[in-house]
Structures are given as C-alpha cells and as structure tokens.
Specification:
This protein is an alpha/beta fold. It has 3 domains: 105 residues, no CATH class; 261 residues, Up-down Bundle (ABC transporter transmembrane region fold), CATH 1.20.1560; 236 residues, Rossmann fold (3-Layer(aba) Sandwich), CATH 3.40.50. Helix content is 62%, strand content 12%. The protein has a 6-stranded mixed β-sheet with strand order 9-12-13-6-14-15, with helices on both faces. The protein has a 4-stranded antiparallel β-sheet with strand order 5-4-7-8, covered by helices on one side. Strands 1-2-3 form a 3-stranded antiparallel β-sheet. Helix 2 packs antiparallel against helix 17, helix 9 packs antiparallel against helix 10 and helix 10 runs parallel beside helix 13. It is elongated, with a radius of gyration of 36 Å. The site of magnesium ion has 2 residues, from helix 14.
Amino acid sequence: MLKIDFLVSNEECENVLEKASETLPKHLQLKYRLLLEELFSVMVEEISGARAQIRIQGSIPKVVLQVKGEKVDLFSNVKWNSDRNEDLQSQIRFNLFVDNADRIKQKYNSRRKLNTYVLKEPSKAKTTEQKIDEFYSKGEKITPLKQILFFRELYTFRFLFATAVKAMRSAPLIVIPIITARLIDLIIENEANLTNIFILIGIGILSLVLNVIGAHFEGTVFKKLIHSIEADIRSAMVRKLQRLSLSYHNNIQTGMVTTKIMMDVDRISFIYNTFIGELFQLLVYIGAAAVMTLLECKWMTLFYLLCIPVAVAVSVFFRKAVAYRNSEYRKDQENANAAIEEMLDMINLSRVHGLQKNESTRVDRFLNKIKKSGTELDSLNTLYSSLSYVSLQVFQLVCLLFSALMARGGWITIGSIALFQSYFATILSRLTALINHMPEASRGIESFRSVSEILCINDVEHSGTTKVNHGMRGRIEFRDVCFKYSDKSGFAMKNFSLVIPERKSIAIFGGSGSGKSTILNLVTGSLEPHSGHVFVDGMDLKDLDLNTYRHQIAVVPQTAMLYTGSLYDNLTYGLPYISRSMVESILEAVDLKDFVYTLPDGLDSVIEEGGANLSGGQRQKISLARALLRRPRILILDEFTNALDRKSEMNILNCVKRILGTCTVLIVSHRVETAKMVDEVVVLRGGSIIDQGSFDELVSKDGPFHDMYSKH
Ligand SMILES: Nc1ncnc2c1ncn2[C@@H]1O[C@H](COP(=O)(O)OP(=O)(O)OP(=O)(O)O)[C@@H](O)[C@H]1O
Ligand SMILES: [Mg+2]
C-alpha cells in the first residue's frame, strides 16, 4: 500500500495552473490545464512526499518536482518545441510523466531512508471480505446450514464470547430454583438458621449480578456480532452486484434486489438470535437440569428427556408446510416491491396518459397476493404455536404429577418438587419460545437461500490482468467482431471492423436497433465479443484489467445520472484529487459557469434527487463536465442530447467541439450536425457498416449517409 502524502495544496496548485495557462494561447489553455492536472494526479498516485513546483518561462512550462529537499527537473531530458503546440499533449504525456513517473518512482522507492515512500507489504492473511467472497464464489448454490456454519467459523472467537455472555445471563434461572429447593428443605427439616438463609440469598444475589454483567455485554458483544454479520452479507451482495455482468443487470428488477439486500438480511439475523439466543439458553438449562436431576433422581432425567423428542416431532411436523408458505410469501413480497418500483419509475408517463387506475390495479394484484400468502402463513403459524403450547403444558402437568408421586413415595424431597417444577417450567417455556420462533427462523433460512441467489451467481464480468496506466493513448480497433445477446437471438454485430486512431472522433449513425449502443458497450468492456477482438492501444480488451482501463474512459449516458448532494460532489464523483479551479474551468468549457454563479451557493448548491431542480440541458452539461473532469482517454457519448431541444443541443454540441482532439471520442447521435464536427462518420445497419468516411466525403457521394443528410 502506498501512502499518499502530496504536499501541494489545492490553492498552490490553482495559482500555478492559473499562471501556467495564462501564458498559453487561449485555445490551448484548457487542454494544457487538463494535462497539468493530470500530471498532479499522477504524482499524487505515484510519488509520496513530493512537492511540485511549476515555473513558467515564456510559454514553456517548467515543472520541478521536489522530494524532501531534492529537486528533480522533470523536463531535463525533454526537448521542447514550443511552436508545435499541437504536440504539447504528446510531449507532456510521453516524454514527461510516463517516463519520469517510473524513473522517479524507482529512484525514490529504492532510497527508502529518505522516507519518501511508505510502502507496506500487503498482508498475506485474507481479509473478512476476501473470505466471504471466496466462500460464495464456488458458483453452486450453498445450503443455508453451510452459510450459518461459515459465519460461525468466521467469527469463532466472538461467537464463543457471545455464548459465554448468554450463559452468564442464564445464571439466576439455574441457581434460584436450587436455592428455593434447599430453603424449603431446610425449613421442613427445621435447620433454617439465619446464616444458612443468608448464604443461600447471597448466592442468589451473585447469580443476579452475573445476569446484569451478561446483559451489559449482550448489547455490545452479541448484538454487535449479529449486526456485523448483517453488514458483511449486505456489503458482499453490493460487491457482487458491482461485478455482475451487464446482461444480468438488464434482466433483473431492482426492487427484487433491494428486498434481498434489506429484508432478507434482516431475517437472517433472526437465525442467529434464535439459535444462539434461544437454543443455546435452552441447552444450558437442559444441561443444568440434567445434572441436578441425575444427582437427585435419575427417573426424573428420563422423564425430561422424553419431552424433547415430542417437541421436536411437533416442530418437524409443521416445518415443511411453514417453509413452503414462507418461500411463497417471500417471492410475493419481492414481486410486489419490484412492481412498486416500476410504478414509481413510470409515474410521470402513466399520469400524462391518464393510466393511474391501471397502474393502481396492476400493483394491487401483487399486494393482494401478499395479503393472501401472508394470511395463510400467519394462520399456519398461529395453529403451530397453539398446538405446541398445549402439548408442552400437558407435559408440565404430567411432570407435577410424577414428581408429587415420587415425593409421596419418599424418593425425592418436597423442595425437589419445586426444583423440578421450576426447571421443567423454564425448559418448557424456552422450548415453546424456540418453537414459536421457528417460523421466523425458517424465514431466515429461506432468506439465506434468497441472498445466495445473488451471491452464488457466476455471471460476473470478465476482467483481464493487464493494468492500464495513465499513458493510455486511446486507439481503438474492432477486428471482425461478432456479438449476440443470447444464444436464441440473432447477431447484433456481424464481422464488424473499425479503427479509431488516438484522439480522433467518430460519430456513429444508424436506425434503432442497428447496433450503436452495442458498439459502445463493447468499448467499455461491458459486453464481450462472441468472436473477433476489440483492441485498445493494440492490447486485446479481454486481457486488460477492467478497473484500471475504465479509469481512463468516461461515458455520458442518454439520461444524466445525478444524485442528491452538492453540485460540486456531483461533478467530482469518484475523483478525490481535483482542484476547484479545474472544476471551474471545465464548467466554463461546458458553458455552465454563468449558470453556477446565479445559484445561491454556487458550486455548493444542492441538487435534488435525479437533478429535479435543473433543466434537461443543464443536467446533461453537468454529466458532460463530470466526464471531462475524469480526463478520459476515451470519451463515449450515447445519444446524450436526445432529450434536449434543438437550441440546448447545439449549445452542448459546441461544448463537445471544444474538447475534440484531447481524447478519442465516440458519439452516437441522430443529429447531422454531429457528423460535421467529427473526424469520421460511420453508418450502421443490422450490426454492419454500410457507409464510412469524413462528413465531406460522405455528402459528396451517393450513399446511405447522403440520403439521410438530404432528408434532414
Ligand atoms: N439486452 C438485450 N438483449 C437482447 N437483445 C438486445 C439487447 N440489447 C439490444 N439488443 C438487440 O441488439 C440489437 C442492437 O441493439 P442496440 O441497442 O445496439 O441498438 P441501437 O442502435 O443502440 O438502437 P437505439 O437507437 O434504439 O438505441 C437490436 O436488434 C436489439 O434488439
Ligand atoms: Mg442505443
């Protein structure tokens, strides 16, 4: 792990950037600032304890990196040609920090006494997260019992401690009946002097103190353990969802997934409550009762042992029916959640079409199903607990009769009647509680099955191992790519070949379903070719580490994704090291600066959920600005102006125009204006290219694009 300790403050950085960019011709300022920001971020990531200075000499920037007093001139080996402004980018990128970063990193890495790096060997021991992910990664369904045992093993020590705490809490219920029995016997035998009484009461008080100590730890140890397991399962599910393939996400209803993450995990915690809480306490009582009765009268032990199989038999008898009803109830709840979520997503559309009633009726159908399955489940549960209560009470009466007869025959003392009766009542009440909780526990077991439906899925996104660094150029090549969404569907891309050179822009045209979005998803690595290859900088995309690769790309989707929070947070989403001046210059580039000044809190103004307090154009500009702040090597714009009026669209396309040439750009658009500003245009039909060339070439020949253009 590399400790990052970058000494250049944001303000320092901002001043330097301000000055640096002022010296350059206006049209290069933004590009240059982007590069310097990138340089800073490389240093932040690569070099610990570094202090950067940028000095300006004419229009040639001079960057000096200072590490603990030692200066390293990054430009010493670089031959600058300030006239060839268009090459500034390559000069900085390839001569400066790609080479230098490695060199400096090695130099300072090897001289550790300078204390510039704090490199920690990654710990060999697996983290809890790794253990959980590994457990669920086997690809086959894992039974609830295996899952319960896995978490018990994962937290062995905490489980043992929790068990000890539970045992402490049981102390009075074991000790006080013994004291009562002894006291009765002493009184009957006329031996109840004050000392004996006080000793017995003292032991009773001690057991109560143990109970209080146990109660104190119960909150901190036992409940904490259960909440840890809940949190572990939830975050494992979230991690898994982040890794699952795009096709999985396309086919799943989000309402169903949230039910699994929130409600099912809640129910799982009940298992541990029931099994550690109830079952363990019951075992403690049974153990104590067995010892006491064996000491007093072994016939009584035999009698106790009889009632356990009967209770288990009652439980097993109902278990199957309850499990089936639980499963039905859970599925109905998931379906209803999904339906409600869909209803909320479509609420605007259904209202303007006057379909409120249809929507309510549709959701009601799901709610009625829950009502029916919930009622059936509850009535079964009620019958279940009533029958188990009656059967256990019958046993208690029989116990009273049995012990009374034994006392009458002189086998046991009168005090022992109270002891047996008290133990028996406790055991029965615990057993009844356990049996009553069985339906909830079996719901918890069902929930283990439910969460494993996500955790055990194999359909994860494939990622290679080759890490992509900041020097990525962004050259894309499709070579004979064929792709289909499923075995049943036809090919969405057929022998598709295309080269997009670095920093060039391409516009993709074509009718609905012609494969435009499929191409973009192939570039992001969200889809993998069925055959053929996608190369980035000459490397097969399937060999690249998707995580590092995706740090180099940015996507502006059709609908802007904004969350509740400040404008600044929305813009810098996922970017920890970004200066405010950088944000402002990007806002200027996308024509949002004036708008932000009109907001009461400027960049700190709050954006409502989904950007409800912004216009469609503003939302898309924020989305574009966010993408640009990532300093992408590949920028993907998928019909991102579709929802805008013509004026806003032209306005935002002009913003895009300004950044062309800084990175590779893929634009899917229906507007012919887009074609005019890019380097190359591709027209698709049925997943194949039917026309290709620059705008001028295509309009001058009689091809599909020419037809489209003339109709426009
Ligand atoms: N998730 C999916 N499952 C099955 N087929 C799909 C899926 N997504 C797209 N397709 C099919 O693949 C083909 C290409 O779809 P794609 O989404 O790439 O088209 P598009 O050109 O982006 O269309 P549009 O302009 O409507 O967005 C279409 O025939 C479509 O029906
Ligand atoms: Mg599309």
